[in-house]
Each structure stands twice: as C-alpha cells, then as structure tokens.
Design a protein that fits this description.
The protein contains 1 helix and 8 strands; from the N terminus they run E-E-E-E-E-E-E-E-H. By secondary structure, the chain is mostly beta strands. A hairpin with a 3-residue loop joins strand 4 and strand 5. It is globular and about 35 Å long.
C-alpha cells in the first residue's frame, strides 16, 4: 500500500504501534541497551548507540509493561541512519522479523491493546493492524 500526503509517501503494509520501550539488542555475542520506537507484527524501529549494518542478524528482548511478560524477537536490519544528539551519537534502524511465534504475536497484540486503551489511535483505512487484521476506520 502506498499513501501520499504532499511529498511524504508511506509504503508500510503493516500498522505500526508507536512505543518508547527499553529493550536489549543482541548482535552476535554483544548486547546493547536500546529503545523500541515502533513495533508491528512484521518488524520494529529501534534507537541505540550501536550501529548494526544492513543485513545483520539481531535479537530484541523486552518486557511488556503492566503484564511483566517477556518477549524475544529475531530478525535482520533492513535500513538505518546515524545522527548526533545532546547525548552523543545515536543510531536508528529498522528490523524485519524472521518469524514471529503465535505467543509473541499475542504479546504484541496485548501491548497494542494496552496502548489503544490509553490513547485513541488514528489508523489508516486498509492498513494491517499489529494482530494482522485490517483497520476499519473510514
């Protein structure tokens, strides 16, 4: 699906849940602190001080707020950017999941439901939600 608003085009097939959750990013034997900025059933967008290369296999581990359940997701980096903030160099990158287990998908849906209960979320018509269903908002 491609959506155009002015000069911005959104080609995402999956609805993304905006988050700001601490997580652990694993690259081989190394572990880094990171923040999960967006999450979908197909991938995630993260921020960290490490700069994984495109194609690099990664593992993301986090705890679902309120439930305390842990989730671990494996994937590979599909794109990334680097920048400087007041805290130093920061990297942001997208990860596409290799496979999401039904249990992990249920935890992602729980996280989405918790967020929707706190804040009304505007969804685009026809976008796949975190749980794989299509949004119905006009």
């Amino acid at each position: 699906m491609t959506r155009s608003t002015g000069a911005i085009q959104d080609r995402r097939a999956y609805w993304r849940l905006p988050t700001f959750l601490p997580c652990v990013l694993r690259l081989g034997e190394d572990s880094y602190s990171a923040f999960l900025l967006e999450l979908s059933s197909n991938g995630a967008f993260l921020s960290s001080v490490c700069n994984p290369q495109r194609g690099c296999p990664v593992s993301i581990s986090l705890e679902i707020p309120e439930s305390g359940k842990k989730i671990s997701l494996a994937g590979h980096v599909i794109r990334g950017t680097r920048g400087t903030s007041t805290h130093g160099e920061i990297c942001r990158f997208a990860v596409r999941f290799n496979r999401v287990t039904p249990d992990s998908l249920q935890l992602i849906k729980t996280l989405s439901d918790q967020a929707e209960a706190r804040t009304p979320v505007k969804q685009e018509r026809g976008k796949q939600r975190v749980d794989g269903s299509r949004s119905r908002n006009p």
